[in-house]
Known about the structure:
Elements (H helix, E strand, L loop, with lengths): L9 H28 L5 H43 L3 H17 L2 H29 L1 H7 L13 H26 L2 H27 L11 H6 L6 H28 L5 H17 L4 H19 L1
Helix pairs in contact: 1-6, 1-7, 2-3, 2-9, 2-10, 2-11, 3-9, 3-10, 4-5, 4-7, 4-9, 6-9, 6-11, 9-10
Amino acid sequence: VLQFFGFFGKWGIAGAALSALVFMFYGVIILDLGHRLQAKSYLPIIQEFAGKRLSQLIDYIILFFLFGMVVTMNAGSGAIFTEQFHLPAVWGSLLMAVLTFTTVILGVRRVIRTISFIAPLLITTVILVSLWTVFKNPQGFISNLDWSNFRGAAVPFWPAAAILYGSYNLVLAIPVLAPLGALADQKNIKLGAIFGGLGLGIGVLSITIAILCKVPEIARTEVPMIVVARGVSSFFPVVYSLVLFAEVYTTAAASLYGFTSRLSVEGTNGFLFVSGAATIASVLLARVGFSNLVGTLFPLVGIAGLLLL
């Protein structure tokens, strides 16, 4: 959020609203296609609208970035362990890898239940931290609205950054949204997409506002919101770190499930092998570092995702 919204100051707030609209619009389309095609993975959906050759290209792009997201989330959990608990990053990466692998081999319903429990908890926590931060430092927030650092942003133009943020998230969400649409009732799809997009938009907006209260000093940290949480109370950063770790876990689990379910059939030895091999490889590659992966990989995912959109 810092790299796609925070560095734009007040225009980052406009970007958060734009990205929420992108989530809503495409969320309806993907869930509806998943329901009509009774999709078990994302492949039937992209074949439906892209044709054989183009869908093959998009398939390779999604597979590559799903694995990249697993790597990034392992690096993110390592960053949380280092910045908050002063422990070696590899411990966080290993714990994340074990939790993610265990969840994925239990199947898609387990992945969906995990996300359904943790996501509202994270959004609620983010909103509370944001409100408290603005309440404690309203003048800092108002004065920092005019602050910006376009050179630090993932993309140096706020509408493009907002669309790419929505784009890369949708690339990584479609492997779960597709089978979720197949499981959902038709009447719930539109409301689910609208409330889901709105919830994501509110979460992004809250983090952007909280970050703007503390810039530019937190712009150099790996996980800025942990620094923001320190302003609430002495123990709250621990609480927020645990919630954030849980949300990183749901993202990693969704990405690993999407990657594995595309290459093998759930419940088979092949599914177990692919998920295990991908987990081991992701832990090794996570050594690159969280902010480096976010700044490099995510804009590329977003650009490639424009083809999907």
